[in-house]
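Justification of computing resources. Each target in the renewal requires a structure prediction run like the one illustrated here; the chain below, 398 residues long, is used simply to show the kind of job we budget for.
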Amino acid sequence: MIKWSDHIKEGLRSLYFSKLRSTLALLGILVGTASVVAMVLGGELATQEALRQFKTLGTDLLALSINTAQEESATAEQSNVSLEQALALPSVDTQILRVAPYTQLYYPTHYNGKPLNSTLLGVTDSFAQIVQVKLLQGRFISPFDRYNFYCVIGNRVYEEIKKATYASPLGQQLYIGKNVFTIVGVAAPWQENSFVYADINNSIMLPLLASTMISKYATINNIIMQLTPQANIADIEEHVTYYLQQSLGKKEFFYRSAKELIVKMKAQSQILTVFLGLIGSISLIVGGIGVMNIMLVSVVERRREIGIRLAIGATRRDIGALFLFEAIILALVGGIAGVTLGILITYIVASVWHWPFQLFLLPPLTGFLVSSITGVFFGFYPALRASRWDPIQALRSE
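Resulting structure tokens:
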């Protein structure tokens, strides 16, 4: 009975003397393993980056959207939320710390005769604090602005204005319809996310009450609430809905919780990771087929060697183990090299996209285990075929 260590030595010797063939088989496993590791690890990093950007707003937020598509009955006392009602929400439930109601308008806007492709947001001073709008210059909308025609421009709007003039935009004026607004602040670049239904970078923010003066369509349909830690979201939704329905009637209220959205994003990311892993496994299967093909060729070419080994006392189990170990060695070496290459590719991608790189244990381990299983699976048939050779026919072969 040949020892396992002898099988390993014989396998390494055989692979060494057929360098080109071994290298081609090794490349198939390497590329397949690298694909699995890079796709799964890259998917994990992309998910973590999306969650990190989302969490920058904080997980203690609750957004309310009011559906205005329904027709109001003639007996309804009020068809829209007033600013006073929105600002009174913290008194409805003590778990609400502050609120940021906002209106959203699409209105012709010009600067020095040049049209600006932007959205108008009627906001209050708490809007900047809750959605974390930082300023490059000037100040944000204050509680004292009320009906004054002041505005804060988003970063992309600022870049458009810079093309027309190199002067500071502070104190300059732009036209919103026929109304003249004075720029009092410039917002820093803001990271877009699915929680706020507005692109701050491409917006012009003005006092909420001023937005209601320039258009009758400036209604408060969105309210963002900052909550206390560990707040009971179900209770808050129930209290807010009951409070608003007293004056708004049976309008539809849609709530979006940051914590709920994060849970959904994690669930979607798991599906995406599995999908990417399956795609990467296709190339690994192709590599495994290459290993099986190479091993079958090796079995045919080494028929006389097989016959001699059987004639001098080697068992069929020894012959099968010899070829199986060659396939396993190819799979292990290719798996280690593939895991290393996959991690390197992911690191380069993360550096290019400026993502924080984090090495997760599961993707490299999964890639290595799958490559090892592939080597055993696709190496088993050639090893079985070699062990079934008839010694006499094998010795007679040329």
